[in-house]
Amino acid sequence: MKIITVLNYIDKLVLIVAVSFLGSCKSNPEATATKQPVLTDYTIGEKWVWKYQGVTDGGEVRSDGTDTKKIVGFNGALGMTIDNDTVLVSEIVKPEKSDTPKYKWPLEVGEKWIYEKDWTSQDGTTGKQNQDVEVLSFKEETVLAGTFMAYTIEYKGTISNSRGYHAKTDEVWLYAPEIKNFIKMTQVQDGFSYTEELIEYSK
């Protein structure tokens, strides 16, 4: 009887240690790293819907609406609808060959890098974005679409264009690996605040 009791005690002790270990893993999600999504991670019918709004410091709403992206069949392959266009998912997941990328994979808390982007608008205006980036945390974040484990990524720097515009621009992106996309983005730039928040995700 004593032997059985001791064995039961050992079993309980092992269980307690295991639960404690799993609990510590859950409370320390920063120990993980996330690789870039690949083509097989996406399925036809997957859909993301964000609500966006841009407001001046004076309270004037400059933009207000929704943005939807969906995975569809496209010429025998997977495509993602973006506005009125469809882009091959294989192009979206293609590794970015840049020393100054938007996302530095694998994502990991504490990682820092520089993000630079040159762009040209439809009217021919050229511009440049230059920001210091840091992954601040990986924890549960709640948005209108639900609660997700997400990385908080902070971008701080400047934006300028060929028309003489120059401004400080600070952004915070919440990226959720589970849905392969951001769930919220906030940007503050020269007296203007812009927010996008995920309001629907379906698969």
Description:
The structure is a single chain. This protein has 203 residues and is mostly beta strands. The chain folds into 2 domains: 30 residues; 133 residues, no CATH class. The protein has a 10-stranded antiparallel sheet. The chain has a two-stranded antiparallel ribbon with strand order 1-6. A hairpin with a 4-residue loop joins strand 2 and strand 3. The radius of gyration is 22 Å and the shape is globular. The N terminus is likely disordered.
Structure, briefly:
The chain is mostly beta strands. The protein has two helices and twelve strands.
**Inertia-based shape:** globular
Query: How many beta strands in the DSSP annotation?
Result: 12
Count of alpha/pi helices: 2
SSE string, helices as H and strands as E: HEEEEEHEEEEEEE
Compute the average pLDDT.
86
- Which class do the helix and strand fractions yield? mainly beta
Distance between the termini: 54 Å
Q: How many structurally independent domains? A: 2
The largest β sheet comes out as: 10 strands, antiparallel
Taking all Cα atoms into account, the compactness measure Rg is 22 Å
Oligomer: single chain
What fraction strand? over 45%
Unreliable stretches, pLDDT < 50, 5 or more residues?
Answer: 1-30
Fraction of residues in H or I helices: 10-25%
| Main sheet: strand order | 5-4-3-2-12-11-10-9-8-7
